[in-house]
């Protein structure tokens, strides 16, 4: 573990930045884009960022972040240094474990990382390099090519089930997640997901267009009681959908504006 507990994201007057174990020349700039101004960072391998060794599909690259070994973890940001849209998701696990699994787009060979905020307001970073053929952010989504995206827009499904380590919630939402980097296709993406149970917020997610088309996300909720979980999604065009997910069920949602 490399500790740089008091190092600010912005460059110091002498131009010194936190040492990066991945030696990415763009990290200081990227941190200023994805973290709050003046954030203090350090590298910590208790933040476990796992993904395949090979990016077989740069449009759908699975990433898992597990910060359950980090005391006081209260926010997770997933990002890729060299993507044109670096940040993928900003997750606040209000009543969920600090864990998230999702798929993102990759535009080239890049470090893929997670930043985890802890109780004192500082951020712990971890991640690794991944080789990718490129084009994940600048190619039209499959649903656009097929022309069927509008027929299924914001169709939301969920499944909630018990595991030995607690509940698991899988959410999928049909959405093209347009980056705005394809000719004649403006940016249009799923913007927020809010998960709640019994009036209590379980987790909030802010997504960017670098999340893969038709977002599929897994969380580990810790709601009080055994009632259903409510998932509400909103996209950048103002469309909304809400669905309730009961244990061991997968149900469609009713979309509305």
What does this entry show, briefly?
With 257 residues, the chain is mainly beta. The chain has helices at residues 27-34, 142-146; strands at residues 7-8, 40-43, 48-50, 61-66, 75-80, 87-92, 99-104, 110-117, 123-130, 156-163, 166-173, 190-197, 200-207, 216-219, 229-235, 240-245, 250-251, 254-256.
Detailed description of the structure:
The protein has 257 residues and is mainly beta. It has one domain: SoxY domain (Immunoglobulin-like), CATH 2.60.40.2470. 5% of the residues lie in helices and 40% in strands. The chain has an 11-stranded mixed sheet, with no helix packed on it. A 4-stranded antiparallel sheet has the order 14-11-10-17, with no helix packed on it. Strands 3-4-7 form a 3-stranded antiparallel sheet, with no helix packed on it. Strand 8 and strand 9 form a beta hairpin. The chain is globular, with a radius of gyration of 18 Å. The N and C termini lie far apart (47 Å).
